[in-house]
């Protein structure tokens, strides 16, 4: 079963962390990635740039309209994700609980099963 573990960032929370705490988060993600690789459960992981660098695309009257910045104004944003393949939701939650962000109040880690991928519904 495939699951998306999404990391939700609050920049105010990150800004309040010490350099040591920020380093611990980075090192924790490194260990988490290595563990997923070793277990064979990692499909991919990506970190995203700040939403201020985003472009929102819509089509009006048959023409693309592009605006700068995030789709939604909010204090939290999607900062990155892990796409994993594991036995079940319980395992996905077990893995997500190893992500260092889960220990910091104001940062969110969400687990959602992939429903559709590559033209096929997931089991």
Oligomer: single chain
Structural class: alpha+beta
Strand order within the widest beta sheet: 2-5-1-6
Measured by DSSP, the beta-strand proportion falls in 35-45%
Averaged pLDDT: 91
Helix content: 25-40%
Low-confidence segments, ≥5 residues, pLDDT <50?
none
Helices and strands, in order, run as EHHEEEEHEEE
- How does the major sheet shape up? 4 strands, antiparallel
- For the secondary structure, the number of strands is 8
The CA-CA distance between the termini, in Å, is 7 Å
Rounded to an integer in angstroms, the radius of gyration calculated over CA atoms is 17 Å
Q: Please work out how many helical segments DSSP would assign.
A: 3
Q: What spatial form do the alpha-carbon principal axes imply?
A: flat
């Amino acid at each position: 079963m495939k699951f998306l573990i999404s990391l939700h960032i609050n920049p105010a929370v990150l800004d309040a962390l010490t350099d040591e705490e920020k380093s611990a988060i980075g090192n924790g993600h490194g260990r988490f990635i290595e563990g997923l690789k070793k277990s064979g459960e990692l499909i991919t992981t990506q970190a995203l740039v700040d939403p201020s660098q985003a472009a929102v695309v819509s089509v009006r009257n048959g023409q693309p309209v592009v605006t700068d910045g995030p789709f939604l104004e909010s204090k939290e944003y999607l900062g990155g994700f892990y796409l994993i393949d594991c036995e079940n939701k319980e395992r996905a939650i077990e893995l997500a609980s190893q992500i260092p962000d889960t220990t910091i109040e104001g940062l969110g880690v969400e687990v959602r099963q992939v429903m559709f991928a590559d033209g096929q519904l997931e089991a």
